[in-house]
Amino acid sequence: MQHFISPTDVTDIHALIKQGLYVKANPFEDAHLGKNKTIGLIFFNSSLRTRLSTQKAAQNLGMNVMIMNVGQDSWGLEMEEMIEGHPVIMNGDKAEHVKEAAAVIGRYCDVIGIRAFAELKDRDKDYRELVMSQFRKYAGVPIVNLESATRHPLQSLADCITIAEAKAAYAMLARPKVVLTWLPHFKALPQAVANSFCEWMNPLANAGEIEFVVTHPPGYELAPEYLGNARVEYDQEKAFEGADFIYGKNWSSYTHYGQVLTQNPAWMVTMDKMQLTNNGKFMHCLPVRRNVKVSDDVLDSPQSLVIEQAANREWSAQAVLKEILLTL
Ligand SMILES: NCCC[C@H](NC(=O)CCC(=O)O)C(=O)O
Ligand SMILES: NC(=O)OP(=O)(O)O
Q: What family is this protein classified in (predicted)?
C-alpha cells in the first residue's frame, strides 16, 4: 500500500482487517520494521484517539514519531494555488504555502499522517479533499488519512475489526444486521465518519457478509458516492428491529450543506430502542456527548463496544503502517 487516504488505496479490505487482527495478537512482531523511519503526524484539528493510537502503533513498529498542530505550533498553511482563475496572492493570514510545507515535512518524514476536518462552509471545497490531495501531490512520501473532510478510514478499519471480533465472540448469525443511525447534536459536525462507514460496510454487504441499513431524518441524506447502494430507512425504530450492531453518529446536512436541520431528541439512542434489536451492540467512534446522542445506560451497558472500538484504533493504524513500511 502506497498511501492510505481512501478505500481505493487498499487492494484487499478483507486482508487488511485480517492484518489488524493479526497485529493485535502479535503487537511487537514487527518491532524492527520501522527502525530509523520517521512518521510525522500533522493535526489541523483536535484529537484524542487518533493522535495517541497512531503514535502507539508507530512505536510498536519501531518508528520515530513527530507531532505538530498546524496553526498553533506552526505557520498557518495556504492550500489553494489558484483563486478564481488567478494564482493565489498570499496577503492574508496564512504565512506558508502547502507546496513548501509538504515538501519540507516530506524531507524529514518517511510517512505523513494528516488530520484536516471539513470546514462545512463550502461543500465543493470540502469534497475536493484539497488538504489530502495537496499533501499527496507535494510531500513525495506516503500519506495516511487521520480524518479528512469527507472520510475517516482508520476509524472505519477499526470498526470492521471490532465487528469481525464481535461476530466471533458473540457467535452471531453469519450475516449480522448493521445499522448506521443519525444521532441528534446541537453542533454541526462533518459527514466524514458516516461517509467512511458506508464506504467500508458496502463491500461487506455486497459480499453477503452483513446486511447494512442507514437511518436518518429527511434532509440528512449522505452524498450518493459514499452512500452507495446502502438501504435507507427513515423510520429509526423499524431500522433497529433485529439489528446486531447499532453504529451511532451525528452529521450535519449534506444537501443543506453544514446545517443542523433538527436536534430532535427522539433520535437519541436509549435502552428502550436497544430493546428493539437482537441484543445489538452499540458502537460510536467517540468522542460522544452523553444524554444528547446516546443515554448513559446504553454507554454503560455490556452492549456498548465503544471502548473496544477505540482500543482497536491502535491495531487499524498498525496494520496500515505495517503495509506502508513493507513498500518503503
Ligand atoms: N474523530 C472523531 C469525530 C470527530 C468529529 N467530532 C466532533 O467534532 C465532536 C465535537 C463535539 O461534540 O463537540 C466528527 O464528527 O467528525
Ligand atoms: N474517533 C476519533 O477519531 O477520535 P479522535 O477525534 O479523538 O481522534
A: Belongs to the aspartate/ornithine carbamoyltransferase superfamily. SOTCase family.
Confidence of residue 125 (pLDDT cuts 50, 70, 90): very high
Residue owning the nearest CA to atom 3 of ligand 2: 50
- State the pLDDT at residue 42: 97
What separation in Å is there between the alpha carbon of 208 and the centre of ligand 1? 31
Residue nearest to atom 1 of ligand 2 (CA): 285
Cβ 285 under 6 angstroms from ligand 2 = yes
Work out the number of other CB atoms within 10 angstroms of the CB of residue 186.
9
Q: What ligand 2 atom has the least distance to the C-alpha of 51?
A: 8
Tell me yes or no: is domain 155-310 CATH 3.30.110.70: no
Q: What is the pLDDT of residue 185?
A: 98
pLDDT of residue 72: 78
Q: What is the pLDDT of residues 160-192, one digit of tens each?
A: 999 999 998 887 778 999 999 999 999 999 999
Beta bridge pairs of residue 43: 69, 115
Mutate which of 285, 286, 309 for ligand 1 pocket (most atoms within 8 A of beta carbon)? 285
pLDDT tens-digit series, residues 236-281: 999 999 999 999 999 999 999 999 999 999 999 999 999 999 999 9
Pocket of ligand 2 contains residue 146 by CB under 6 Å: no
Binding residues for carbamoyl phosphate: 47-50, 75, 115, 152-155, 285-286, 313
What is the band of 97 on the pLDDT scale with cuts at 50, 70, 90? very high
CATH fold for domain 7-151+313-325: Rossmann fold (3.40.50)
Q: From the CB of 147, is ligand 2 less than 6 Å away?
A: yes
The pLDDT of residue 171 is: 77
**What is the Cα–Cα distance from 192 to 286, expressed in whole angstroms?**
13
- Please, how many CA atoms are within 13 Å of residue 29, restricted to the half-sphere of its CB? 12
Contact (Cβ atoms closer than 8 angstroms) between residue 210 and residue 143: no
Domain limits, the chain: 7-151+313-325, 155-310
Q: Which residues are within 8 A (CB) of 43 and not within 5 positions of it... i.e. 6 or more apart?
A: 51, 67, 68, 69, 70, 115, 146
